[in-house]
Amino acid sequence: MSEIAVRVRYFNVLAVYAGTKQAEVTLPAGTTVRGLLDRLVETNPDAFRRALVRGDALSSYLRVFRNDTLVGADGFDEPVAEGDQFMLFPAIAGGAGV
Length: 98
Prior knowledge:
Blueprint: E1 3-10, H1 13-18, E2 22-28, H2 33-43, H3 46-52, E3 53-54, E4 57-58, E5 62-66, E6 69-70, E7 85-90
Parallel strand pairs: 1-7
Antiparallel strand pairs: 1-2, 3-4, 5-6, 5-7
C-alpha cells in the first residue's frame, strides 16, 4: 500500500499539548480526514487527546481547516491527498457578559 504525507499545524493549546506547532504525518493512501485525526490522537500525549475527543466523538470545539478551507461535517469522511495542509484550532468560548 502506498503512503502519502500531509502537514499539520497546531494552534493555541493544541500546540502546547502536541509539543510542536507543526508536524509532517505519513498516512496510508486513502486515509480520511477522520483517520488523520484518529492518528493524531493515537500519537500525541493524553492531554492532546482530551482536547480533541469528547466521549467517543471529536470535540465540537475543534475547528479543522484543510488547505485553508473549514472542514464541514461531511468533509471528515473525505480522503486526504498528498501535500494537503491541515490547521487544527480549538474553538474558544467564554468571556464576560455585559
